[in-house]
Amino acid sequence: MSLAPGTERAAQLISPLSPTMEPDDRTNRLRAEATRVRRSVVEMIGHARMGHIGGDLSSADILTTLFFAVLRLDPAVPTAPGRDRFILSKGHCAAALYSTLALRGFMPVEALSTFMQPQSALNGHPNRRKVPGVEANTGPLGHGLPIGVGAAIAAKLAKASWRTFVVLGDGELQEGSNWEAAMCAGHRRLDNLIAIVDRNRLQQGARTEDTNQLEPLADRWRSFGWETIECDGHDHAALYKAFTTSSVGRPRCVIARTLKGKGVSFIEDRVEWHHKVPSREQIELALKELV
Amino acid sequence: MNASGGTQPFLFDCRQAFAETLIALAKEDERIVAVCNDSVGSSNLGEFQKLFPDRVINVGIAEQNMVGVGAGLANGGYLPFVCGAAPFLTGRALEQIKADVAYNGYPVTLCGMSPGMAYGELGPTHHSIEDLSWLRAIDGLAVVVPADPAQTRAAVRWAAASATPAFLRIGRTKVPSVTPEASDAFAFGRIDTLRNGNDVTIAATGVLVSRALQAADVLAERGLKARVLNVSTIKPIDEAAIISAACETGAIVTVEEAMVEGGMGAAIAEIVVRHAPVPMRMLGVKGFAPTGSAEFLLDHFGLNCEGIVAAALELKDP
What we know:
heterodimer, A: alpha/beta, Rossmann fold, five-stranded parallel sheet, 5 strands, B: alpha/beta, 2 domains, seven-stranded mixed sheet, 12 helices, 12 strands
């Protein structure tokens, strides 16, 4: 199956929700899209009987805010040179990314039912050569930010106005490669780079703070030269403001405070739901909550 | 000129040819950039930096970030040459080479400087003897080992033109020229036959090609005509040349400045056992080196004329 839209025309690089629209309207639209993403994630994982449901659900509001209100993209021309770059460093949350890309028009929504099926383009981790809209094949942790730093340097060299956004898990900040990249971006004052930490405070086996402490996380980013703000990672208005406020002369880090499993009461904030698969009954219950 | 003449041949450091070619390419193509890990000096990028100060991205001592940055620059439309001492580039950033470069299919040229045991007395931490084995196993990554400056120049040009994930092993050990100065000194995927012969094959790579030619001269004095192959593309390997050599000479000695487990000799053996089984001797580095200069260590592991001659004779007269 080919997912490529394959039309040839000049790219129209925009975000679907205009910067000039009423803030409340934007928030309502984003809330609706995020609910669609969450429902899709539950259905995909329920069908595949595999996936990383906790992190998918925690990142849904971040992803929808970016793809519907911030990123300047054209799904019909997914590799247009002037597009904004989006890199999902926490590649295990591919189901949320695929759902967002499909709703944004990068592939048919029907394709989502092939998630992790034999020969599907929709691997358990994203592949840019198979899925339009994916910029980097991620999966091993600590890889997205260095690639994002390289992309941001490329835009600076080319004097281009496109921006690079990288979504990181909080657990993966235990990988040293992130801090190599953070130091480099701070040193080079890459103000066209925005890192977003999905700060759900849980990693695969336990709470981050019980495993290898990340706090004081904002201070750590600041000390690497990043303008750093914290916000509610499920508040679309707060996320929109965080992503669209410019930080002159510095890269920007948004620590989005989230709940792993957000939106499904029995999954929320529970370590055991990192990649546990819900039963048929639990899927029904989850979909009832996600309206 | 060949390496076995009575007069001492001129010796060249391949890094100079690398640097000159990269500068020439950068003048022609503004997409060419260099990425390095505080290795402007050891990667011979000083002149490049003078000419194109913005196009040397020195990320500091951070090889994982360096390779990821290379992939990101490629995403942004550039053709990055990522340069670092081979042991740290390949060992420290192996997962980035696999995932960020090869699996993504980004046109990044990884330039492993001073490979093998070129750092001699600095010891095994600074030797890059596992790189060929590690990198051969990565799908979609070309592995190229130029033998002299002419091959280095051609290989750098090939890398820029092909825009494919690639590893270039750029030697610092001074070597004589082994190939004529010609535009096809190096062709990607081609084994070059430097000496014809049908009694035994000596397949060598990198700095050891000149020693293979010396060994062929000694063998000729003993009445054995050795075929000398310069294996400058380790992956993908030139199957036809190997099968011909096996069928026509009946015995193969491989010589590389790397661990034999999984390296160039192993790549040849994989072809030989499948298509034309013949006896082989695989010469290479046999473990962590003792203290000594690069030259001393090559001799220590028998990676010299005498060692190659002995292996060839052993194959012909077991």
